[in-house]
Amino acid sequence: MEKTFTNRNPIPLNRKAALLALFLFLTGLSLGSFLEMELAAEVRDDLWRFLHLPGGSAASSLTLLLHSLGRNLPLFLLTAAAPLTVIGFPASLLVLLFKGVSLGFSAALLFQSAGFHGLFLTVTSLMPQNLLLLPCFYTAAVLAIQFFLCLFGSSDSLGNCLKLHSLPFLKKQLRLLPFLLLGCLLEALTGPIQLPL
User: How far apart are CA 2 and CA 149, in angstroms?
Assistant: First the structure.
């Protein structure tokens, strides 16, 4: 039976796609932590001082929201749209790898610079938004892998497969968008509160 992305017969969760996406994210997480540990002490201190710039007003919350949207929304749209070009499919995987690197680096920086207080900051200022953002990027990457496998596992021509499956694929990706926006909002709300601590 041919795998499809149509709403009538949705493609089941592909275990290999999920495992590949998980492997990429964990690789990025480890790489980010390793890169932070290789930083010179002076660079780490400069980054830590930068995190302690005064903030916490409503204006800074709005600024953080815009920055969060500016970082996450283009990456999400790239993850969602890249597989439609076929040759752009690897970009979806690189985005998930990048998210792992950035999270691993940030968590390691907080812990290395402030010990258990850094661990507290990791839990309170990194976890809330990433409980929404990471599943969005992870699910988007899994869908991208499944879409790619569906195209090249079909007996139909590539052009016909793209016409048949592109719209249902995009609809599935766009369903993740509200959770991404909520994650960006959480980042804006928790960031100003925690950074001055």
Answer: 12
